[in-house]
Amino acid sequence: AAAVPGTLGLGPSQRADLGEHYLDVGIAEETAVALASGAAKAGAHVVFGTQATFLQRVYDQLSQDLSINHNPATIVGANASVWGMSDVTHAAFYSIPMVANIPGITYLAPTNVEEYLSMLGWSLDQEEGPVYIALPAGPVRHAPEGAVQRDDYSQTRWEHAREGKGVAILALGDFFGLGERTANLLAEQGVDATLVNPLFASDLDEGTLDELARTHELVVTLEDGSVDGGFGQRVAGRLAADPSTRVLVRGFAKAFYDRYDADELLREARLAPEQVCEDVLAQLEA
Questions:
Q1: What would you report as the CA-atom Rg of the chain, rounded to the nearest whole angstrom?
Q2: Which of 21, 142, 163, 284 is in the most buried spot, having the most CB atoms within 10 Å?
Q3: Low-confidence ranges of the chain (pLDDT < 50)
Q4: What's the pLDDT score for residue 118?
Q5: d(C-alpha 54, C-alpha 37), whole Å
Q6: Phi-psi region of 16 (alpha: psi -120 to 50; beta: other; left: phi over 0)
């Protein structure tokens, strides 16, 4: 940790239980990532968790110390979300563009508690390379009753939550709930949309995406972060050569946001479910 143990839910009793396995470097995130990289290289199963905004300080270490060396440390970033901290120095709208574009880092975006825990468990066991996990923000979500969690994230493979036609909604991470609500509104308008949980922000499931493009008229991406350099642009780039499939990318504009109201900002970005539904219908009618 780096002076924010509460981010990981590590109170005094939890830290005491961890004993020598817990190290707080103070406000020195660069040191934390370098230590995590070295410890992973030596065989430790190490997790460094912090507020996502503070990872801006460690870009060099993420790239040069960690990823180039393929060291299997786990980085957990909290509050990289419109529902996170809202003051301008702590808001974190750029985690995906910043981290997911570093070669060799697997960026995982869980949609619920159980998914997060399964990703964390896999990351701690694997030895292939560094993994970043975006701690889900917003309302606490749990997996549907009876859902079986994946135990292997070594391959980029998306999950279909709902099969439909015409429109495919790719709702990443903690925006999956937004995708569900949008799909429900579209169903009320007679549009049976496919809903996909991408799970990965760093890479595309190209086979699934190509199939979605072949069988759907419109692909919609929803992400809790900056559009510029983000997941949706990655999807749009893949599909740019195929004029038969349109792409609607939804996220936040490249800007600094300060002391905002989350619901108001979502509406400004046309990310309220009814707005996304309206824009999808407009695309289908165009």
A1: 19
A2: 284
A3: none
A4: 98
A5: 17
A6: alpha
User: Distances from the Cα of 235 to the Cαs of 82, 220, 223, 230, 242, in angstroms?
Assistant: 21, 9, 12, 9, 12
Give dist(CA 72, CA 125) in Å, integer: 9
What is the structure's pLDDT at 141? 95
Six-digit token pair at 70? 């393929």
Burial class (CB in 10 A: 0-12, 13-18, 19+), 19: exposed
CA 5 to mean position of chain CA atoms: 21
Token pair 């937004």 is found at 178
* pTM for the structure as a whole: 0.97
Half-sphere exposure of 165 (CA within 13 A, CB side): 2
Contact 123, 74 (CB under 8 A): yes
The pLDDT of residue 242: 85
3-state helix, strand, coil in the chain (%, to 5): 40, 15, 40
